[in-house]
Amino acid sequence: MWEKVCAGMLGAMMITGTAAGVSAAEKGSVQPQVAVAPAAEKEQAAQPAAQPAAQEPVADVAAEEKKDEQKKEDQLKISINLAARSLALYRGAEKVRLYPIAPGTASTPTPTGYYKVREKEVNPTWTDPETGISIPTGPECPLGYRWIGVQGNIGIHGTNNPSSIGTYASHGCMRMFEKDVEELYSLIHIGTPIEITYNRVVVEKAPADGTVVYYIYPDEYGWQKITTEEVHKWLGGYGVGNFVSDEEIDKKIAESDGNPTYVGKVYPLYVNGKRLKNNAVEQDGVMYLPAIDLADAVKVNLGWIPEAQTLMSTYGKAPGVDKRDVLYCTDKDVRTLFHLTGGLDKEKNYSLQAAAAEPRVEREPVAADQKIAGDKKAAASQVKAEEKPVLADGSASKKSLTEIYQEATK
Question: Does the keyword field hold Glycosyltransferase (predicted)?
């Protein structure tokens, strides 16, 4: 039986400077081994077959591909975030377990990188790295009753000091509550992939309803400095980068308490069956839709009156919101502005379709002094202010866009 020491001497495994870096040696240590057939088997394989091999049915090939894909989806992976002091077990892309841990201290940090489960042991023995004295399994053993080897003397194990869980307390190992490590031990196997990261910013989206929350953890190791703009980019990857202000993020970074902060619910946005680039976002009970995306989708002219916070299309006008240079309208105004109707479908997509005909006019060049809806970089166009929209029956509208504009700026 191997004796575990959990020593503080991490040697070549120690990663300094940035938590994201992984040395070439570490990467090499987890590359899959390719079995090489013996020479005799190779020679035999080279001989022609007595009978020509029957062509494999296409259906069988498809079935094998589907089986391989299913196997990949079912594969387990351990993902550890040292900044969050948590260990997650994934089955494919689904998180099936989440446990608190106690990783290494700032002076003996747990190394980041990509590994795999190298050994599993019930009732391990611990050897003190300073004195060399061994402590067998039992209530006095610091390893608890399960050991999951990761690399050298670094492993995942139980503990006889449960109060340390959630703190940085070990010599580099990852301690777990005994009931948690025993459950994890029963689920994983030799070769299960292990990813150890140090990510202070974590953004999560609930698969059930699209709710997005984010966390910012303290920088215990001093490995990751973060900026407000970086947090916006992380949130942007989930479609809500425009829905949190700089001030809110600055406050969150200053606190770095690891508590969840709700942002909103994100839904894929479709117009007439076509997926748009940006999403629909529900925040504090209001559904926001990206105005320029909708205007482009239905080829409607759209203008923005900043002093009145008003969107003006060839169909009508409605309040708008400028969120970090992207303009949004609310769901209650999509018919007025874009002649669209719809809402959430059973797949949790926000789907809009064209309604009955509404007044509209042809596009003309944008006036130089007008701010156009969108990201302020996209080319756009706007109708002549003097021209009156044409109704579906061919008659002229009673109000021109000049009159609409004048009313909006009163």
Answer: yes
Do the Cβ atoms of 86 and 101 come closer than 8 Å? yes
Q: Tokens representing 255? A: 């606190």
Do 299 and 367 share a domain, yes or no? yes
Angle (CA) 392 393 394, round 5° = 90
388 shares its domain with 400: yes
Say yes or no: 375 and 239 in one domain: no
| Residues belonging to the active site | 157, 173
Residues paired with residue 78 on neighbouring β-strands, in sequence order: 89, 194
Residues with Cβ within 8 Å of residue 178, at least 6 apart in sequence: 144, 145, 146, 158, 159, 162
Provide the terminal-to-terminal Cα distance of the chain, rounded to the nearest Å: 84
Cα-based distances in Å from 22 to 18, 114, 332: 9, 8, 50
CA distance 226 to 80: 20
Domain end marker among 215, 237, 263? 263
Residue at token pair 């259906």: 59
CATH number of the domain enclosing 165: 2.40.440.10
The CA distances from residue 196 to 26, 84, 123, 180, in Å, are: 12, 11, 25, 18
- Amino acid letter, residue 331: D
Q: How far apart are CA 318 and CA 119, in angstroms?
A: 64
Residue 333 DSSP code? G
Q: How many residues does the chain have?
A: 410
Rounded Cα distance between 198 and 203, Å, is: 14
Q: List, in sequence order, every residue forming a beta bridge with 381; answer none if it has no partner.
A: none
This prediction's pTM? 0.70
Q: Which amino acid is at 268?
A: P
In whole angstroms, give the CA distance from residue 107 to residue 23: 20
Flag whether 41 is in a domain. Answer: no
Residue 88 and residue 125 in one domain: yes
Identify the domain containing residue 259 by its residue range.
201-263
Any domain includes 253: yes
Is residue 154 in some structural domain? yes
Residues of the chain with pLDDT under 50: 1-2, 7-54, 358, 366, 368-369, 371-398
* 257-312 pLDDT, tens digit each: 999 999 999 999 999 999 999 999 999 999 999 999 999 999 999 999 999 999 99
Q: Is residue 44 part of a domain?
A: no
Count of CB atoms situated within 10 Å of the CB of 54: 6
Q: Which is nearest to 157 in space by CA: 185, 116, 133?
A: 185
Residue 237 backbone dihedrals phi, psi, to 5 degrees: -65, -20
Among 170, 197, 224, where does a domain finish? 197
